[in-house]
Structure formats: C-alpha cells, structure tokens
Model the fold of this input.
Amino acid sequence: MSAPRRLRIVILGLSITSSWGNGHACTYRALVRAMAEREHDVLFLERDVEWYASNRDLPDPPYSRTRLYGSLDELDSRWRSETEGADCVIVGSYVPDGIVVGDWVLRNAQGVRAFYDIDTPVTLSALENGGADYVTAAQIAQYDLYLSFSGGPVLDRLHQAYGAQRARPLYCSFDPQFYYPGGGQRRWELGYMGTYSADRQNGVNTFLLASAERMPASAFVLAGPSYPHDIRWPQNVDRLEHVSQRDHREFYTAQCFTLNLTRDAMARMGYSPSVRLFEAAACGVPIISDAWPGLETFFTPGRDLLVAESTDDVLRYLRDFPDGERRRLAGRARERVCGAHTPWHRARELESYIAEAGKRREVPA
Done:
C-alpha cells in the first residue's frame, strides 16, 4: 500500500533520544521511523533535560530530524515557523511544561493539532483528582485529534466527558528491527522490565518476588530504575538498573517466561497494552500477564499468553507448563503482534486520522 501525500509533521514528545526510565522513546522511535519510511517529513522536538541528557542511547535518530530545545522561549523563536506550516503538530503526554506547550501549539499551528496520550488512564485519573501537569480538560476539547494509547470505553469517555472532537486509538507497537526470536542462553525463569511505580509494586511483589522466594534454586530478574532502597530483594533476583533498547531482545530471550504488569489506572480502564507486552511477544517469549479488561482484544488468554491472579498461578506456570506448549504459546502471540501491531500499522492509522481531521478542519464553520 502506497503512502498518501507527503506530510510535514512536528512532534513535541517526552523523549526520542533516551529510553531511560520511560517507554515513550521506543514508541516514538518505531512510529517516526515508519512515518519516515513512508516518505513523510517528521521533526521531533524534545526538551533538553538533564535526566535524559545523561542517558541518551540514541542521541541522533537517523530516520528523522530531532532537535533539542532548552526553554519555551527557544521553542518559540526557533520552531514557530515550522509549527505554523506543518500539516500536523502532535503534543505528547508528559512533555515538560506540556500545558504551556499545548497552548502554544493550539495558538500557532495551522494544520491538524493533535495530542498523543501515551498515558490515557493516568491522565484521566489525574484530571479527576486535581489535574495533570501536561494537559488540561479544556485543551482536550480544543485539539482536533486525541490519539490514545488506550482504546475501548475510554474513547467514549473522552468524547462525552471532555468534549474530545476526535478520540482515536493509536496503540504502541514493536519494531521488528529490534524485536524478533532467538538469542542467547536462557538465564532466568521469570523476568520483568519496568520503571518503579507504586501502583504496580503489588504485582511485582506478588508475581515476581514471592515466586522467587518460593523457588530459591531458580534465577529471576527485574530491570528498571527508581525502585526504593528499602525493598528486600531475594538473593535469586538479579537487579538491572536499566536495559538499553538495543539490549531488550537479549534480555527478553534469556527468560523462560516474561511478566507483564499494569498500572492501576490502566488496569481499571482496560484496553491499554504496554509497549513491553508487544516487544516480548515479538521476541517469541511466553508471557504471564495480570488481568485487565480488553486484554482479550489483543491476545487470547490461555492460547497466546497466560493470565495470573496469584503467586500460586505463576508457580504453576513456571513448574508445570510443558515446554512444547510454552513455545507454541509464544509463537501464537508473535503471530498476533506481527499481524496488527508493527510501526507500519500505526503509521497507516495515523495517516488516516490526520486525513480525517484535516478534512473536518477544511469545512467552513
């Protein structure tokens, strides 16, 4: 399928240069590379902050123009003209000073103004409990397009409760360049990759740490920053502070099973697959996941992945699940993601959404 007319797109996102402590970078890298391969002109603007400056694993993405800005004044002076002339300008969730940046885009962009919420349930929960730092309820109604990492009923909620003009799902994806089966020797029975979050820690405790304590002869692993110093790690749990994207595949394929855990807000609202879920599936690694509404729209529990509700469930899978069925389970999950969740699927969806919103803006009021 050929690409539509060449689009000029400006994205103001949390980070594309550093995957340290965030899943945004992997999502943006995959999407932007696919858009560039489809011959669109993409400019990614990233706030230059110390946290990412010290941990850049892709400082100059080769498939787009990436530029850092140090302040809002610099953003305005250097990039207003490109923003004004773009066919679409996308503001991402968790962008520093995102509310001010959003107002600036809504004021200056002449093309489609979009918000890409990689944290939709977290955003809505924050708005209902004092407000989010990166978008306001009023802005939701002003954006021409609200791209959401979550689908299902949350899209209706955005329309009905917040007046979103056009709420559309734009889920994460995996990049086949980095995620595919094979790799080194198996090292761990079960592993998990994720930045510390208080509302995910119960799952870490129940599914990973408690399982490790009850299987002391087996090795487990947890990768991710920001975990409190007072957590008691079983001796058979390896701790990795960070795994760079180029090493994700090696990390996943060294596991017998990998664990998927969901933040409370996302679990409640459902239909919110994580980028790590698709990555692991693409690598052909069997997945044990917590349960959440809408999971079955992405994978069939029991056929493509396993769902756990307790430590006993995890232990049963680790001890008793036949190895041949484990491989078949992983193969079916890989088929699912390859058929619907590559960057090129997302690029085509984004093109269609931009075209839809653009036609609406062309209709005289």
Remarks:
- Residues 343-362 form the longest helix (20 residues).
- The chain is about 40% helix and 15% strand.
- The chain has a mean pLDDT of 95.
